[in-house]
Input
Amino acid sequence: MIYLDLDDDIKPWLGIDVLNTTHDANLTIIADAIEQSVLNYVETTFELTEVEGEILDGNISDVILPLNTPVNSVEGLYFFPEVDGSGGSVVDPSEYKATREAIYLKYANSPKGRATVRVDYTYGYDGLPADVKLMMLQTVEAEWRRKGNKSLGIGGRSKKDESESYINDMGQWDERTGLPKVLISKLQAYKSFEFPSSPMSQRNW
Output
């Protein structure tokens, strides 16, 4: 999936005329590398993905944690599925509430045991979030300027002092991710985490 379009996003952001193809190859390489670095960091994609028949352990808790987040919708919740992952006792949608992080049972707890819960759900994002797109564009610009490509014909933005100031504003670059440290913080909300499943007290609804 390509999230940043060269002509629609990158060139307008940098102030480059779309008819100017001089820097296309280098900008494409930079943008592709940054997109991959972002996806590697958050360990997810910004697309809606359907999961059918995800089998989880029950732990006598009113909280069920799907393996992937954010949860967009729950198509089915079942207790005691068959050994092959099919079937199971249907939990009525009125008996649970789905949030982006978890599924909360309203009136009962999940059954205790290995592979006692089955979930069919959709997770992910319906397109690239605006703040992540902004972060990608800022990183493309910072990387471009950091490599010394400052003469883009974009007026005041191409001045040496402004270029160096912009790069310094990005802060230090993280060696592991290849992204500016100050921008990594914007990705924290989208990073995929594996939460431990532990019993919690029953909620009142």
